[in-house]
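Worked example 2:
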Amino acid sequence: MVLNYIWIAFFLLAAVCAIIQCLFLGNTGVFADIINSTFDSSKTAFEISLGLTGVLSLWMGVMKIGENGGMVNVLSRLLSPLFTRLFPDIPKGHPATGHIFMNIAANMLGLDNAATPLGLKAMESMQELNTKKDTASNPMIMFLVLNTSGLTIIPVSIMVYRAQMGAAQPTDIFVPILLATFVATLAGIIIVSLYQKINLFNPILLGTLSILCTFVAGVIWAFSKMDKDTMDLVSGMAANIILFGIIISFIIAGVKHKINVYDSFIEGAKEGFSTAVRVIPYLVAILVAIGVFRASGGMDLLISGINWTVEACGLNADFVPALPTALMKPLSGSGARGMMVDTMQSMGADSFAGRLSCIFQGSTDTTFYILAVYFGSVGIKNTRHAVTCGLLADLAGVIAAIAIAYLFFG
């Protein structure tokens, strides 16, 4: 129901903005731009789904080996003390726990291609427990918000973009991104817990969050001691070794339990292919709506209004030029990436706005894309409080990013 209202709102706002552009700004080509964007966005949605097909088939095949070989159950048992508090509706030791952990781990390492299929597998596992198949369950919403808050320990791609744009020190946004994304994730957990009446003061849950805070602080300290080349080498090696280690450990576990590893892989890969096809309509719907809104000039009008409001209040408006990245990130990852690059190109990679746009890009994830893909893959229509919680976590990340940017670079 929420996605229905959002989808309609995008088109109505686009219509209003297009009329304003045409009548008052003399942009008579805006309607042609809007129609062209519908075709381009549809094509992009299909290309994304097509690109996902191979990756989904690979990782769902690997996950099926892990399931049949018992590795997912091992992870579930290890994480049960924490996850039974954070996801109380998931039975202790259920395979969904292992799938959730694998997805979160991939996200933390910045492995988007691996995180998506693992996340879809987690959604399928939680859907098996869901008594209302068209309505999002509490565990699904908590899981989705953990994804949309975008906790990433190693933002390699953003640092690469900064290097390409001529930044003097491409890694200088590493610590700010880590802090901002951690705030977004913590806010997401707290907000969902309040909605779902989860006891955050449970000793195990409180202790685990404290350990995570300590771990993040340790990672910040370790990477702050490295130069750019060392950081790139360590982060890249860590991600690749962990990924390959997962594949090998699953295969070894399968051999140990005397299962047919190849047949298990094929079984999972078939599921991955079916899932990739199933999400195409949802992606087309959300990306076309976003594309129409962008083409209508709605985003430009919104930024101009924010800039005027901030200046009218007598506040520092240095952060406003970077806002297109923050506003686009919940809607489109590639769109936000384009906004980030455009800001660095027009304002300078080492400008305040250039650095802040990078922090925005790394502090949250594509909320509506994740909603469309994850919920669409299991046929969820009633998202309940998922959108509200996801956007509030995004807002926490944006506010944290602005405050941290002023602290580090203001």
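The chain is about 80% helix and 0% strand. Residues 158 and 358 are 7 Å apart (CA to CA).
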